[in-house]
Amino acid sequence: MVDPSAELQNFLGSQTEWLLVPDFGKTFPLENTEIEITTEHDKILFGFLDDKGFQTWRVVEAEIEDGEIRLALSRNFGKERKNFRLVPRISAQELRMGVELARLEKANELAALIKEEFPLIELVRVALNEENGRFANIIVRDRRGKHTAVLADVSETLTPEILLTTAIFWLTKLESRRKDPVDSAWILAEKPQARNLQKLHALVKESWKDRIKIIEISRKGAKTQSGLKELPCLKISALWRAGPKAIRLTENPALSKTAQKIIALAPDEIDAVFSKQGETLRFFGLPFARIRKVFENEKTWFGVERNTQILSKKNWDELCRLVEDLRIYRSPDTPSKRHAFYHLAPETWLESLLRRNIKLLDANLILSPLYHQFRAERDRVDLLALRRDGRLVVIELKTSPDREMIFQAADYWRKIELQRRKGNLTKVRLFGEAEISDRPAIIYLVAPTLEFHRDFKFLVNTISPEIEIHRFDLNENWRRKIKILLRR
């Protein structure tokens, strides 16, 4: 094991940009200034900044080999363990070419697996989708001449909502062609993605369930493909047999003194989001300060996106200037709509306005007083509210056209409805003394009227009629004042 406090620091400084590559999960770029290696209590700590804030891990083992750094890390007294690679970032063109070749190779591996499982099936086409190369597009033909479209994620980045939406549109396009029309599709996915797809698939109309099948790629080992297994079509009622994860909430989360001091700079614009890691302060929904406990010591980072620094007495004035700039540019009256503070995170801006007064959307709604903590603990429902009649409302917000909006909302609905049916939301008193009705939750889809995706009507008609959906069209100038132009 090398000495990270010296050799690692020197090696990190030899490259301006790195790619942090976990064994599983999202790869993201880091500048060497966004990586910290420190020693505390004879423990070597590796810290880095990602989209969740600043993370600190204990270095169990580190090794420099083939021009990259390999790290074995742990935290939470060894309960969490991860392996990472720090790889020097290469040029975009080299990276793109390498990625495309790797994805095409994976598409061909999947095609070979289909052929192995179904030897009587003929492969007609194996390619990547033209738009972004993230999907394997495979067409197969059986002995009767019937064609089937096969879709798979070869980028390892796609959500079940994207996969199902893409499958529906691709199938719609293929079934309308004159020569060799296609009327059925498979979505190939590995576990657990296939199981999540199966649950989302249960929420569409029967006519779509009959035409789209979810196929799980089963494996003998971590990397060895062993076969394909069709997952059964589920009815919505079958989803309620699952056991949801327990909801654990900290009672009455209190603002730290640092958070209170910062919020006092602009109390009408700044709010706080609580999570296990601590507090995140947002200016009209834009995160600009994070307060975390590191080994029982409170640390505060401030700045927008990756331009962050640790707060101290010496740079308090810089934080004040940042808040003043946010007040000027993150405003409906901004002198420049091109400024980053104005156009960053528009959906959380809208959410922060509705969070302060949900009755701007519907006078019959109340928000959970534990809303933000619940959101951080569970999935990211934009807003969860309760109507006066006791029915839960899942609110999905968009400020630009998003084709997956409907399926995202439907999946959140499923998760919230499962918690409701199991009585977990009542147990944690998510809405205080207010009673939650024994009726299914409702979905509110909210966006400026010109920002609903052009395929919204088509996609909303693919959802099961068991799910009640309301559409709210907002005025385009919602930053100044929210108005409901149309509800349907």
Per DSSP, the total helix count is: 13
Spatial gap, N to C terminus: 63 Å
Low-confidence stretches: none
Query: Which CATH architecture of the largest domain?
Result: 3-Layer(aba) Sandwich
Secondary-structure class: alpha+beta
Number of strands: 24
Taken from the alpha-carbon principal axes, the silhouette is globular
Overall mean pLDDT: 88
Give the helix level as a range of percent. 25-40%
Strand order of the largest sheet: 2-1-7-6-5-4-3
The CATH topology of the largest domain is Trna Endonuclease, Chain: A, domain 1
Q: Which CATH class of the largest domain applies here? A: Alpha Beta
Q: Indicate the radius of gyration in whole angstroms.
A: 25 Å
Q: Secondary-structure blueprint of this entry?
A:
Blueprint: H1 4-13, E1 17-22, E2 28-31, E3 35-40, E4 43-50, E5 53-65, E6 68-75, E7 80-88, H2 92-117, E8 122-128, E9 135-141, E10 147-153, H3 160-175, E11 182-190, H4 193-201, H5 206-211, E12 212-219, E13 225-230, H6 257-263, E14 270-275, E15 278-283, E16 286-294, E17 297-304, E18 307-310, H7 316-329, H8 340-343, H9 346-356, E19 365-367, H10 371-377, E20 383-387, E21 392-397, H11 405-421, H12 424-427, E22 442-448, H13 456-460, E23 468-474, E24 484-487
Parallel strand pairs: 10-11, 11-12, 21-22, 22-23
Antiparallel strand pairs: 1-2, 1-7, 3-4, 4-5, 5-6, 6-7, 8-9, 9-10, 12-13, 14-15, 15-16, 16-17, 17-18, 19-20, 20-21, 23-24
Helix pairs in contact: 3-4
